[in-house]
Amino acid sequence: MNGSALKPAMLARLVYLDQCLTWRGQVNRKDLIERFGISSPQAAIDFREYLERVAEPKPSYDTVRKCYVADREHVGLPIPHDTGSPDELIAGAAEDEFSRLPSPVRQCPPLIMRQLYQAIEQRLKIELDYVSMSSGLRLNQWIAPAHFASDGERLHVRAWSFHHQGWRDYLPVRVLPESSFSAAPIDEELPRDADWEDLIEIRLRPLSGLSDAQKAAVRLEYGFTEDALSFQVRKSLEFYIERRWGLNRPGARLERC
Known about the structure:
257 residues; 3 domains; five-stranded antiparallel sheet; 11 strands; 31% helix; CapW_CTD; WYL_dom; WYL domain-containing protein
């Protein structure tokens, strides 16, 4: 059964019911009403629709707690949908009992993103002022942006540097807003960016010094069951793997094979 016959608004509410049952194990009308601002009769209709569509074993109603409770073998809706984030679902229910460390706010002015995006879209080179963390210097240079990428924490732009005569990663947040952003057509053939085009395999395994029980716990924590976790990344992003996965640090749980 698919969700094609459902209106988008109702589908969103049914998906939310499924997310609550998946991560919290319970849900009631109040959850729907507070989340979507609907009436109690509409919430009742949504629950009936959900109970008709959800796969066996279906949730049961707890008359004492006055909520639907998920079965231990809960499967959920038999339609493709976002299962949601446990952080968000649990935090929304726990209120003052949930605590979260703040994340760094890594944003850059929209003006800078627009200039970089338009340079890629129109295949232009662009002049900007960039602060290097290695030298601490403010460098005026021309670059030819080609791709955007993310290391999971920050946005990067892959660009040809006419100053360094090579492909490099730039952080848009380090581009100074007072840059000229002068643009011009790229009037030469740029070299192949092999580090961007070539994919490499990354293989991670539980730290060799851990016990078998600890290794099993690490595999469960990182969501793999084989001896090693394997995935492909662009070679230009390999540098960020160590930081992103906490390798070679005190308390590290994973190491490269």
